[in-house]
Amino acid sequence: MRGSRLKQELRDLLQAGDLETVAAQAAQRRLTLGLLVALTFDPDPLVVWRAVEAMGLAVKIVGREDPSYAREHMRRLYWLITEESGGVFWKAPECMAECAAMAPDILADYIPIAFHLLETLEEEDLEHFRPGALWAVRRLAPWAGADLPPMIPRVVASLEDPDPQARGMAVWCLGGIGEAGRLSAFPDLRHDEGRLVLYRDRRLEELSVGELTRRILGS
């Protein structure tokens, strides 16, 4: 019952956009990190994305006092994405990337794992995970170093994915890693009416792939 009450409190805070209070809770109640994982299954997509962001903030706080606990949380996130877990934790790539980006010193070993999900996941899994794996590439690009250039062709290939969310994430990823020029080889993207959702500044924005492409290209 206590866990259910705390979960509702966290959800209310996420709905209000008070992610800092959510993160502070994690320093006092370690159950918070697990509940944030549960909240990534919430029916409200804004709550889901705010749970992802709050998880990164929470891991950063917890990691200062207990690095081993933060790393154990990352191990659990990765386990939840694998076939052995038997689960369908669709936001695992985003959660792993956000946590690693917020605590890169503590979670350095997990940066390449999250960054390479786009190429290490089985193809049948990528049907669902590809948008998140692309999001992870952009989020972790500042720490990727020499791993970034070999990943670019995989991102470019996703521009032709049948899922508009994946195509849009590929556009967004290339724009964020300084490779927007590669979009010019795909002129149809400017007129792509497929819809995607972006999470930025703690808000969700729905737009077409074409709108996003034109925005990134500045025309």
Structure summary:
The protein is mainly α and 219 residues long. It has helices at residues 2-16, 19-28, 31-39, 45-65, 67-81, 92-102, 111-115, 117-120, 123-144, 148-157, 164-176, 209-217; strands spanning 195-200, 203-208.
How would you sum up this structure, described in words?
By secondary structure, the chain is mainly alpha-helical. The protein has a domain at 1-115. The chain is built from twelve helices and two strands. It has helices at residues 2-16, 19-28, 31-39, 45-65, 67-81, 92-102, 111-115, 117-120, 123-144, 148-157, 164-176, 209-217, and strands at residues 195-200, 203-208. It has a two-stranded antiparallel sheet with strand order 1-2. Strand 1 and strand 2 form a beta hairpin. Helix 3 (31-39) runs antiparallel to helix 4 (45-65) and helix 11 runs parallel beside helix 12.
Q: Count of DSSP helices?
A: 12
Tell me the fraction of residues in β-strands, as a range: 5-15%
Instruction: Give the uncertain stretches in residue-range form.
Output: none
Backbone structural class? mainly alpha
Could you describe the largest sheet, including whether it forms a barrel?
2 strands, antiparallel
| Radius of gyration, CA atoms, in whole angstroms | 17 Å
Note the run of SSEs as H and E.
HHHHHHHHHHHEEH
Distance between the termini: 54 Å
